[in-house]
Amino acid sequence: MAEKRDYYEVLGVEKSATADQIKSAYRKLAMKYHPDRNPGDESAKTKFQEASEAYEVLSNPEKRQRYDQYGHQGVNFGPGGFDFGRDFSGFQDVDLSDLFGNLFGGGGGFGSFGDLFGGGRRRQADPNAPERGRDMTMELEIDFDEAVFGSERSLDLSLPEQCDECGGTGAAKGSKRAKCHTCGGRGQVVRGNGFFQVRQTCPTCGGAGTVIEKPCPKCGGSGQMRVKRTISLRIPKGVDTGSRLRLAGKGAGGLRGGEPGDLYVLLRVRDSDVFLRDGLDLAVDVPVSPVDAAVGGSMDVPTPEGMASIKLPAGTPNGKLFRLRGKGMPSLRGGASGDLVARVTFEVPQRLTAKQRGLLDDLAKILDETNFPERQAFAQRVKTFFAHKEKLNG
Question: Which H or E run contains 266?
Fold first, then answer.
């Protein structure tokens, strides 16, 4: 596997770059290498994915701090690595829908021939219309026990809310919007020369055709302010690493009275100290006395529902597996639970008294090879191996 490049190098920015510089660098790379603009170009697709991964880390202050301190290991994306198949239109703090949706003048691809070769006009966005807030995504690490039993969490977040000074318009009181000097009020700009021309949304006014004459001093013209918020999250039984929980209306606040976006919580489940997990199935090693295994006894097995007792037949071998149907992980979708597999592991007695040692010595003296069929079979396989050696060496 090729070694990952430094995220700052990928985006072409210095380590001291501001959030706006990082965002701007990513937008340029995304415009250049997006698959819609480069159909069938695997190299461009790889560069787009690489830039998207770098941006997700560097645009998040906490992840960026971990990356600066520990490198790529500090932001390990877990099994399978970074999810390049996810929807990038609303993660973190940037809304890319306007970027991807207008790569060629609309719709995420080529529009009509009129749009492609310079003709036609798009309807300009109403700068005063309500605008829905962005969807936000965050990661949350939880204990394995929470994944089994479910839990309630309180999330302390800092999210964008509509500025109370300007009501989300971004304009200072008494200010008005003026014609955009970049597009001349058309909301679009033409890229290219001669016969081949492409219309794109104006990067200055975002297609509105107008710009704020005097930005709001409180929000700097963005129409939003960061607000600390505490959100309750219910984690259902059966979640796993990669599970995504949606909290409707808990994302970024809307603008000019628009409804808020949604908050998506991406879960990462810590490993258990007791169980191994494979989907809905669980596995557990249970220490057992060799004496109980030899003469027969019982084995207490932990399950999500409590302790279960399994009868050990006389002569139970080390490593014997017992399957408990329906005693594994609960199903997130409400179906049947998985199974639990308990494996017998012999624990050799420690700190023996003189009497105990004497009894074991007496037992050892009366045991013979017929009491150990597995050892006999192993000895036969070894004998065959060395016989082959002598034959091959002549």
Answer: strand 263-269
Asked whether the beta carbons of 247 and 230 are under 8 A apart, the reply is no
Q: Based on the fold, state whether residues 157 and 240 are members of the same structural domain.
A: yes
Give the dihedral sign, CA 44/47/53/54. negative
Same domain, 309 and 251: no
| Residues of the chain by 3-state class (helix, strand, coil), percent to 5 | 25, 25, 50
Across 368-392, average pLDDT: 86
* Residue 211: C-alpha distances to residues 20, 185, 206, 336, 390 (Å): 19, 9, 9, 57, 90
The residue among 78, 121, 79, 99 whose CA lies nearest residue 34 is 99
Residue 242 phi/psi, 5-degree rounding, is 100, -15
197-225 b/e (C-beta count within 10 Å ≥ 16 → b): ebbbbbeebbbbbbbbeebbeebebbbbb
Separation between Cα atoms, residue 66 and residue 75, nearest integer Å: 7
CATH of residue 248's domain is 2.60.260.20
Using one digit for the tens of pLDDT, what is the confidence trace for 171-195?
Answer: 888 887 788 888 888 888 887 665 5
Gap between the terminal Cα atoms of the chain: 45
Number of structural domains the chain divides into: 3
Q: Does residue 342 sit in helix, strand or coil?
A: strand
Same domain, 230 and 339: no
Q: Is the pLDDT confidence value at 124 over 60? A: no
CB-CB contact of 131 with 254 (8 Å): yes
pLDDT digits (tens, 9 = 90+) for 280-326: 999 999 999 999 999 999 999 999 999 999 999 999 999 999 999 99
Listed residue (12, 198, 2, 7) closest to 110, CA to CA: 198
In a domain, 22, yes or no: yes
CA dihedral for 146, 151, 157, 162, sign (positive or negative): positive
Task: With respect to residue 156, please indicate whether it lies within any of the assigned structural domains.
Answer: yes
Nearest to 317 by CA among 337, 288, 338, 341: 288
Global confidence as pTM: 0.58
Q: How far apart are CA 251 and CA 235, in angstroms?
A: 18
